[in-house]
Write a structure and sequence with these properties.
Chain lengths: 404, 527
């Protein structure tokens, strides 16, 4: 198939990977006839439970594993083609970097490998370190870094060559909530600049926030793929959005709706699946269709493993969880996930995480909040300017225009 | 790729292009010259052979240069150096070497002369340099690539525009750079230690001069011209035939036997007899000032006699001013060195040496082996000779680095160093075994009685010869012996070692390593 005809940055057809044992007998089918397409300029999220073949797929795309059968094209070329790699960025599931190098040396090394000229390299290294917030730690060797810091430098190395396609394996793993938010913002920014991104994750909230399309893998097979919005939309229901209605108007609308629907339950507000529910449902369906997976299965609590301590205090949470009396018999997994839990009442979280505010301090708090907001905005502006320096506007590869 | 990236990329590409064009032109020129000589009918085999060697040499050199002209190779090499330094083994080796060289004069006893001391110092420190560096290189080369696979940094490398052969070549280059740095340090330490000991006040001027002329120098070793014994063999053969006393056997074997006997007769100098040796081919060795060395070793017909023997010598062209006659006593079974004026060698480069056995004890002097009598002519200084000796060590170490890397492309950590070390030992054993076998060692008992034993012996010999041929002949290119004896390590010798060990055997091994590495599923290898 001539690669120039499609506008997919990643394309696999019938991709299969079978791991074999020492005697070359097939042991595990990690990827099974996978047809995957990532379009130019989109953020594609590859979801799946542990061991469903996400990382194996990425390794196949990078040439770290060779397919047992099937076809892979990445940016229109085979995955082992070195020319592809200069247009590619990759963040592995764990940040495998050189512990004896510091942030600058690390990025400089990968910049050299990407054949970036010296002046340009220095500029990019500084800007990237700035962007991932490691300026203060730039001269510390990486073995002193925390997991989150290592993750940040890992992300920076994936972007050193201003890649067209970025493969991210669990990009937010190990990051604090602020870091997670920054990464998500970064992914959105990269998309607006025309970059294509394939990310693997099981942090569904992250995926839902940033991905245009998702695919769900189970036992190496792609069970569903499509636009996040359309996948999560419940087509058998309708949502009407209006400007704020007066109570009388709302009563009139509800009356009309009662008349039309025959008095069934009416909910005003868009019913949309949470991705988590959707994900669990697909995986459960997949599990029923194909009970054998080489990956992690569904765990079930086994009370016989834990002996009840007679002297346990009743308020001990762990104890409540492990005492047979407190734990009903293991129920079979529900096929349809239970109704999503109602969101916690506003204020509960705050009351858990912050001390009750003193009335006299409320004003100062509000002022501090406003200042923090202003600061965050200023940082955002600065970060965007850093990004502007780093990322070029989308461009087409001249090779794509070549006649096949 | 951005425009700027494209610019540097093209700068390297232009450099590679120039290499290819120059090499291509060189090859074409050689081919053209050979072809025109062939068409003119004046081509002989040596010319064609020269042309072929030129083509191969140019292609090889250009190929290596072409591969090295990739920025990624240098980036990997830099990182490998950082990695190697990080392991800190290099510093341990430096400290160990320094301690060793400082302690050597106190530990090892020489013969009480400055020459002896320097000989021991240089010899042992070069052996130590080779062994220490060899072990370090094996350790580095078998762990550095493996750790990168095992720690999965290779996952990120694989996502960068760097080919696997570039990774392998970069690693090799990095290890070689560390080795070269260490070797430079070792050279400095050795040289400094030699200077310190040579300047100590306990040695008089004569000792210093002798040390300068016999150890701290580079002398070319010349052997006497081979004597043509065929006429004498023919005469002896005819005489025996006439008498009907020919021993049984094929005529060629009988002649070989006669030749050996005649040679032994000539090398045995009976009391009051004389022996003549001629050295031709010492062209350029004659000088009005300065000396050359006559080195000889003999044994006697008495096994118990260890006292020196009385001899008379005539050296140079008789009837001219450049002729010397002297008498001296020399101990048997020892290497004796005599300094003689270089003007005794004729301008044509011929040296005649006559030895008279004047010993009153009626003993026969026996000169056996190729190195019984040698003339050593100074051709270069100590420093340059040491440098060439160190190059030999570097060549050996380069091969070991290739061996280790090649092993670690398909073996994991505890396996690859063990295998590489076993091969290292085998390389040395193969040389010894082959040398022993050439001297008539049989590997199996009873080869004459049993056909099976004979067959096994033949097979074993075949295997040993093959192994010897495949493995690099390190023993043929040792540095410690010639440098510590003040013998020249010739550029030709060094070039030969580089070609046969590093380029030929090392090149094949590198290709093998790349071939294996390219076919590896790295994500599986890291498990």
């Amino acid at each position: 198939m001539p690669p120039e005809q499609t506008d997919n940055v990643v394309e696999t057809l019938e991709l299969t990977k079978v791991f074999r044992d020492f005697w070359h007998r097939p042991r595990v089918r990690a990827v099974d006839h996978l047809d995957l397409q990532v379009r130019r300029g989109e953020v594609f999220g590859l979801l799946g439970p542990n061991g469903s073949g996400k990382s194996t797929t990425l390794k196949l795309l990078l040439g770290l594993l060779f397919p047992t059968s099937g076809y892979i094209r990445i940016l229109g070329r085979p995955p082992r083609d070195v020319r592809v790699k200069s247009r590619l960025g990759f963040l592995p599931e764990e940040t495998y970097l050189y512990p004896y190098l510091n942030a600058v040396e690390t990025l400089d090394f990968f910049g050299r490998l990407s054949k970036i000229p010296r002046a340009d390299r220095r500029r990019r290294v500084d800007a990237l370190i700035d962007m991932v917030g490691l300026t203060a730690a730039r001269h510390r060797p990486l073995h002193e870094y925390s997991k989150g810091m290592a993750r940040r430098i890992g992300l920076a190395q994936a972007l050193i060559n201003d890649p067209e396609l970025i493969l991210l394996d669990e990009p937010t793993a190990g990051l604090d909530p602020i870091g997670t938010q920054e990464v998500k913002n970064l992914v959105r920014e990269l998309r607006t600049r025309g970059k294509s991104i394939l990310m693997c994750s099981h942090l569904l909230a992250d995926v839902q926030d940033v991905c245009d399309r998702i695919g769900i893998l189970y036992a190496g097979r792609l069970w569903t793929a499509g636009e996040v919005d359309s996948l999560l939309m419940q087509k058998q229901r309708t949502q009407i959005t209006t400007p704020t209605l007066s109570p009388e108007a709302q009563q009139r609308v509800e009356a009309v709706l009662h008349e039309v629907t025959g008095g069934e339950e009416i909910e005003v507000g868009h019913p949309r699946d949470r991705l988590e529910d959707f994900f669990l449902r697909v995986v459960e369906q997949a599990r029923q269709a194909q009970p054998v997976s080489a990956g992690a299965g569904v765990g079930r609590f086994d009370a016989s493993l834990f002996e009840a301590e007679p002297a346990a205090k009743p308020e001990d949470v762990i104890d409540r969880l492990t005492t047979p009396a407190a734990q009903p018999e293991p129920q079979p997994e529900p096929v349809e996930p239970a109704e999503p839990e109602p969101p916690p009442e506003p204020g509960v979280l705050e009351s858990l995480t912050t001390a009750p505010p003193q009335p006299s301090e409320q004003e100062t708090r509000a002022q501090a909040d406003a200042e923090a907001r202003q600061q965050a905005e200023a940082e955002e502006v600065e970060r965007r300017s850093v990004l502007d320096r780093l990322v070029q506007q989308p461009r087409r590869d001249p090779r794509d225009d070549e006649p096949s | 790729m951005t425009t700027r990236q494209a610019t540097t990329h093209s700068a390297w590409a232009v450099a590679r292009g120039i290499v290819l064009i120059v090499a291509g032109a060189g090859v074409l020129w050689s081919v053209f010259r050979a072809a025109s000589a062939l068409l003119a009918g004046s081509a002989a085999w040596p010319t064609l052979f020269d042309a072929a060697a030129h083509v191969v040499g140019t292609a090889l050199g250009a190929g290596i240069l072409y591969l090295l002209l990739h920025p990624q190779v240098w980036a990997i090499a830099r990182n490998t150096m950082a990695q190697a330094i990080r392991i800190r083994a290099a510093f341990a080796i430096m400290a160990l070497y320094l301690a060793l060289v400082c302690a050597l004069p106190f530990v090892v006893e020489g013969d009480g002369t400055l020459r002896g001391l320097l000989h021991v110092l240089i010899g042992y420190s070069l052996i130590a340099a080779g062994v220490l560096l060899g072990i370090l290189t094996l350790a580095l080369s078998t762990t550095i690539l493996w750790s990168e696979i095992h720690e999965k940094q290779i996952f990120i490398l694989e996502s960068k525009p760097v080919a696997r052969w570039q990774i392998l070549l970069g690693k090799l280059l990095g290890i070689l750079a560390v080795d070269a740095g260490l070797l430079a340090f070792m050279a400095l330490v050795t040289w400094g230690s030699v200077q310190v000991h040579a300047r100590r006040s306990r040695w008089d001027d004569i000792e210093r001069r002798l040390a300068r002329e016999q150890v701290l120098t580079a002398r070319r070793v010349a052997r006497p011209d081979a004597e043509d014994l065929s006429k004498e063999v023919d005469r002896a053969y005819e005489e025996l035939k006439r008498r009907g006393q020919l021993p049984s056997g094929a005529p060629a074997d009988v002649r070989d036997q006669l030749r050996d006997e005649l040679r032994n007769l000539r090398n045995a100098i009976r009391p009051r007899a004389r022996r003549h040796w001629r050295f031709s081919g010492l062209r350029g060795a004659r000088r009005d000032k300065g000396n050359f060395t006559l080195r000889f070793k003999f044994s006697t017909s008495s096994r118990t006699r260890e006292k020196p023997l009385f001899t008379g010598w005539e050296v140079g062209a008789r009837g001219t001013r450049d002729f010397a006659r002297y008498q001296a006593t020399y101990p048997p079974d020892e290497v004796n060195e005599v300094q003689l004026p270089a003007r005794l060698i004729t301008p044509e480069g011929v040296l005649d040496v006559y030895l008279y056995n004047f010993d009153p004890g009626n003993l026969t002097l026996i000169f056996t082996g190729d190195d019984a009598v040698e003339a050593l002519v100074p051709v270069a200084g100590f420093a340059s000779n040491l440098a060439r000796g160190l190059w030999l060590i570097l060549v050996e170490v380069l091969f070991l680095a290739i061996l280790g890397l090649c092993c670690s492309t398909f073996m994991s950590f505890p396996v690859s160093p063990v295998v590489a070390l076993a091969l290292y030992v085998l390389i040395y054993l193969a040389g010894t075994v082959k040398a022993e076998m050439d001297q008539g060692l049989t590997l199996i008992e009873g080869t004459k009685e049993s056909k099976v034993a004979a067959a096994v012996e033949t097979a074993m010999r075949g295997i040993a010869t093959t192994v010897r041929f495949v493995l690099p002949p390190f023993d043929r290119y040792t540095a410690s012996e010639p440098v510590s004896f003040g013998e020249e390590v010739s550029s030709k010798h060094v070039l030969e070692a580089t070609l046969s060990i590093a380029l030929l055997r090392g090149g094949v091994l590198v290709l093998l390593g790349i071939l294996i590495f390219e076919r590896r599923e790295l994500a599986l290898a890291s498990r």
